[in-house]
Every structure is written in C-alpha cells, then in structure tokens.
Design a protein that fits this description.
8 helices; about 200 residues
C-alpha cells in the first residue's frame, strides 16, 4: 500500500507545478521506492518497517499544523510546527543515523559481511540521510523564525517559479487572509473568500 502511495507521488510530480525542491523530492521518492521494494525482495522487512515507522512518526504533526493554518488557528499552527520540527530532528538526525544506519552499516558488516545488495541498500539509506540533513536545516530555520516572530513563515519551496509571482503579490494585498488566483478572484486556501461573494 505504501509503495503504491510513493509511486503515485513520484509520477504526480511530472504533472504538478514544479517546485524549487523538485529534484530533492524526486530523489527522495526514488530512494524510498527502492528501499521499500528492496527490503521486501531481500527479506529485510524488519529494517524497512523500522525506517518507514521512523519516517511516519512526524508526518501527522506537519499535516495537523497545515490544517490549523488552513483553519486560521495561527498559534496552534505555530505550536504544532515547532513540535513537528523537534520530532523531525530527533528522529531523522538522532535515531535514524545512530540506530538504523549504525545497525545496517556496522553491525550487519560484522555479522554477515558486505554483499552486493548491501552496498545498494546502504547507499539508498545514505541518500535519505543527506536529504534529512538538508530538510532539517530548512525546518529548523522556519521553526526558529516562528519562535522569534510568533508566526510560521511562508514555505519557500512552495512558490511557483514563474513571473506570475509579482502579479499575485500585488493582488494579494487586497485580501489579508488569502491568496489570489491568476484571474483576480480572491481565494482563501483555494476556495472563494467571502469578500469575493460580497463584491458580486
């Protein structure tokens, strides 16, 4: 089931709006699909399950923060994002390298020695670790700004890389809590805002 989810995410990136972190997300999905498939085929389900559980433990906090942001509960959004940041850093820069990678690199080397697929498996795990370091830096930077300013800053990677950003910035000043679509209609989180209906 999770494999199908990652396949759909990977292929949806070709039809969705390209983000600034497209290459990083594409590498992440390729490595994840490779690890899920590889751990199942080579009967390394325990390691694969631990890696998936470790990665999924912080995801619900990010989704909850997004929901709070959409519902305009800024303080709850900020709190959930800071908690998400702490859990993300602890699991992916603490537990993952010192428990999972230590076991797959050093303990498995001592028990059974390296074998051809050992190199591939650990290479994919290392790719994920490099991505964890990059994302942790970005997340901690946003969380720090949230603590200082009292508000989670805009997600830099979510910007559409086009010339329409300037147009959206000028029309966005009209609506304090939403964004604006390309046709000028005021929107709140992807839905028409009340000011749009009042203008009609």
């Amino acid at each position: 089931m999770e494999l199908a989810f990652y396949w759909s995410l990977m292929f949806s990136q070709f039809i969705d709006i390209k983000r600034k972190d497209f290459l990083i997300m594409f590498m992440h999905h390729l490595a994840t699909i490779g690890l899920i498939t590889f751990s199942y085929i080579n009967n390394m389900v325990r390691v694969g399950t631990l890696v998936m559980c470790l990665h999924d433990v912080s995801d619900f906090l990010l989704e909850a923060a997004k929901l709070a942001n959409y519902a305009k509960y800024q303080r709850l959004c900020d709190t959930l994002f800071v908690i998400f940041s702490a859990v993300f850093v602890v699991t992916r820069l603490g537990i993952y390298p010192f428990w999972i990678l230590n076991t797959t690199f050093f303990e498995s080397w001592e028990m059974i020695g390296p074998y051809p697929s050992w190199w591939l498996f650990n290479g994919l795990l290392l790719i994920l670790q490099v991505l964890h370091v990059i994302w942790s830096y970005l997340i901690v930077r946003i969380a720090f700004k949230a603590l200082i300013r009292g508000k989670v800053s805009k997600d830099d990677r979510s910007d559409v890389e086009s010339s329409s950003e300037e147009e959206e910035a000028t029309t966005n000043s009209k609506s304090p809590c939403g964004s604006s679509s390309s046709n000028g209609a005021n929107r709140v989180n992807g839905h028409m805002g009340s000011s749009y209906w009042a203008e009609e």
